[in-house]
Amino acid sequence: MKSTQTTFYIVRHGETEWNLAKLLQGHSDSPLTEVGINQAKDLAKKLKSVSFDAVFASDLLRAKRTAEIIAQEKKIIIKTTAVLRERSFGRFEGKPREIFQKELQQYWEEYEKLLDEQKSQYKFPTEPDIESDEELMLRFIPFIREIAVAYAEKTVLIVTHGGVMRSFLVHLGYGTPSELSWGTVKNSGYIKLESDGTDFFLKEVTDVEKRQ
Predict the structure, then answer these.
(1) Which residues of 194-205 are buried (b: 16+ CB within 10 A; e: fewer)?
(2) Structural domain of 12
(3) For 18-70, how does the pLDDT look when each residue is reduced to its tens digit (9 = 90+)?
(4) What InterPro entries does its record include (predicted)?
(5) 175 part of a folded domain
(6) Which residues are annotated as a binding site for substrate?
(7) In the chain, how many domains are there?
(8) Residue 103 sits in a domain of what CATH number?
(9) 137 falls within a domain
(10) Is 161 a catalytic residue?
(11) Is residue 1 part of a domain?
């Protein structure tokens, strides 16, 4: 019986100026640094032997540019979508992470006391515009399943963001929220998986720090 599995390479964008400055990005954007461009080029070399049938990227410039570099020699049109965007950080976008953590300290303490299975649903009470892990997955997973069905037996490149990938890895059972803390997926890190449109089978995880 012929396999109907779709193979996915899900990649985080290269380093950006705001990554370097430790500013929250979310739905806001900043350009790739020279390091970020080189990270994308290095990943392009690493994945050179992979024959992609389609490339999808977040519509934010940092992801789109990373996808362009990886797919440059493959002559594939990149399709962009807001569904693949990073978590929204609301009013904290463009601000230092320290301010985000300090202003919401009492809620962070509340979050840390939760059981791991409760953390994905947690919303900061005063910040409705900050997406929870659950909200991230409610837009990401249906999209991946849809692509798996549309591109059965094909190989697809997805360029997205660290927060999305971290939440997805937790969903897949690769690690708990405690083991996979925020910032756990490194720039140009990627995961390889297969899907039949329903289930996901993790094959490879690269440049992801997991706490023991």
Answers:
(1) bbebeebeeeeb
(2) 6-208
(3) 999 999 999 999 999 999 999 999 999 999 999 999 999 999 999 999 999 99
(4) His_Pase_superF_clade-1 (IPR013078), His_PPase_superfam (IPR029033), PG/BPGM_mutase_AS (IPR001345), Phosphoglycerate_Mutase (IPR051695)
(5) yes
(6) 12-19, 62
(7) 1
(8) 3.40.50.1240
(9) yes
(10) no
(11) no
